[in-house]
Amino acid sequence: MTAPIETTAASAEAQPEAVLAGAGRSQIEGRSLGQIAWTRFKRDKAAMAGGVVVVCLVLMAALSKPIQAIFDLDPNKLNQDLVDPALQAPKGAWGGMSWDHPLGVDPGFGRDLLARVIEGSWVSLLVAVGATLVSVLIGVILGVMAGYYGGWVDSVVSRLMDTFLAFPLLLFAISLSASVQDGFWGLTGLPLRIAVLIFVIGFFAWPYIGRIVRAQTMSLREREFVEASRSLGARGPFIIFRELMPNLVAPILVYATLLIPTNILFEAALSFLGVGIAPPQASWGGMLTDAADRYESDLQYMFVPGLAIFITVLAFNLLGDGLRDALDPRSK
Amino acid sequence: MLRLVIRRLLQLIPTLLGLSVLLFLWLNRLPGGPASAILGERATEEKKAAINKLLGLDQPVYVQYWRFLKRMVQGDLGTSIQTGQPVWDEFTLRFPATVELSLMAILIAIVVGIPLGYLAARRRGGWLDITAVSVSLVGICIPVFFLALILKGIFAVKLGLLPSYGRLETGINATEVTGLAMLDGLLTGEFDATWDAFRHLILPSVTLASIPLVVIVRMTRASVLEVLGEDYVRTAESKGLEARVVRGRHVLRNALLPVVTAVGLLTGALLSGAVLTESVFSFEGIGKFLYDAIGGRDYPVLVGFIMLITIVFVLINLLVDLAYSIIDPRVRVN
């Protein structure tokens, strides 16, 4: 990426001598790190596109209930009249697409797919973002401790991260979330499933954040400003919270953004395997399970939830890559 | 070398002990538990108590754990609630299928990924590079089970070119030697079985290959770009070595070291992917059986399979480390 210099109209017109003499019409202003990053980010078209899609998705998820109310979209309303009773497939071409049901209806029940995709979006994003927060919490605490204190703390945390990163985590997540039953933590039904998914996924995904935070902390620890702070008598906690943390915000933000799509895929995989969000609640992974069961009668169905996952994951990845390039150009 | 092997095998003991405590607690201390899994949700309390007594679940926890551990050490992993067969037999019956699927997937990923990553780096910014980067981005963003469904929908259902489920057609009789269906056909001379097994393997292995392929393409591309800028490559070129020699001996050989490490770290992801792939294609490997075990709340199978997979997993990582020290002499010195 090139240096973030934007020439204003005034400075472009000005002759070099005029600039040197300070005769340019515009004043030279200092720019904050945030402004520089934003200038870089604006130039990255893929990242901007990803960002716009992410904003739309978040709005859709946050406003899913009002949207469903205004447009009269009920994710659980059965429309048996739209389903061919013999084939159990939607009547009409393209999975029963019509003005009333723009994405068609699902086989078997005739539920509106647009409504179910919208309904699935908040579940998916809530679980992914919640799990990411859990991962960030664990990852930052352990990563900073390993990076700052080093020694045996570092060895233990690093070994733990290596093990977590390399193990078939899906298997452990499956066993954990399959075994939790109603009444755990005093929760039942959907809130319980969501809480379990957030904790299980967050618990297994923390090393992605921990590894980055550890490496960053190790390099920051040796910098002059930390040394200066220490020579003035600052202790560990002060250095960690007042000197290191402000410098860790950018990488944490970047890698948290990049962890969200991974967690969306993780949630979808668990729901697809039947240990995530339980039906009749709509979830993208669960819709793909239905599609897999009925792919012979209704082949198009799988593309609705499948593309919903694909587009969401792609948008978050583009946004995250763009943020990384904008906030830390050296990392590329 | 031998010391490394012994040290790693000794490290396996605490790992397995820790895992056994976790799995045991999870198996026995959760509401519901094995009694209702065996008898069903509606079983009477007396029947549940009888089963609990029979299984020794009325004993204190540490007594139960000790017995559980003793059985494990003796190689008795219990019996599957679903099939009534010993867990060990269920595992060994299905393990070769997963090995065959994973090996095929890794092979496809290497054969396609390394040349693609290499050429993408050589012609940076060219159409092949753009293709490689886009393919790997799509590969990261597409859920493996969605890819499985797409391939199955197109090639099995719409075009009818390939079988959509299982490992072998029912009519074909194949003698089992190693359990790897393709290899067995070759060994016994039943070439129709080999061909049929191959046709069944194509869609699942291509699906599963998407996971390592993405990593291999990205790693190879980044690593070749880095090596191409090294001084020793320039030296080799300027002293007049043939381009073929420079590429093979100086560029590729050095560039592939990080790729080997990355492939080694993929075992876990590959196993997770195998669960999803096998369940879509009804491919009778350990992943499919685990998937069925979740539905049937078959706790002995879940516990036993996870223990065995962990052992296999540690052994594979050990093999990768050994392979690495053979490829890179610098590792041996340290």
Automatic annotation (TrEMBL), chain A:
Pfam families: BPD_transp_1, OppC_N. SUPFAM superfamilies: MetI-like. Keywords: Cell membrane, Membrane, Transmembrane, Transmembrane helix, Transport. Gene3D superfamilies: MetI-like (1.10.3720.10). The keyword Transmembrane helix applies. It is a multi-pass membrane protein. PANTHER family: D,D-DIPEPTIDE TRANSPORT SYSTEM PERMEASE PROTEIN DDPC-RELATED (PTHR43386:SF1), OLIGOPEPTIDE TRANSPORT SYSTEM PERMEASE PROTEIN APPC (PTHR43386). This is ABC transporter permease. It comes from Streptomyces polyasparticus. The lineage of its organism: Bacteria, Bacillati, Actinomycetota, Actinomycetes, Kitasatosporales.
From TrEMBL, chain B:
The keyword Transport applies. SUPFAM superfamilies: MetI-like. It is a multi-pass membrane protein. Its main location: membrane. It is found in: Cell membrane. The chain crosses the membrane at residues 9-27, 101-121, 133-155, 197-217, 255-281, 301-324. Belongs to the binding-protein-dependent transport system permease family. This is ABC transporter permease. It comes from Streptomyces polyasparticus.
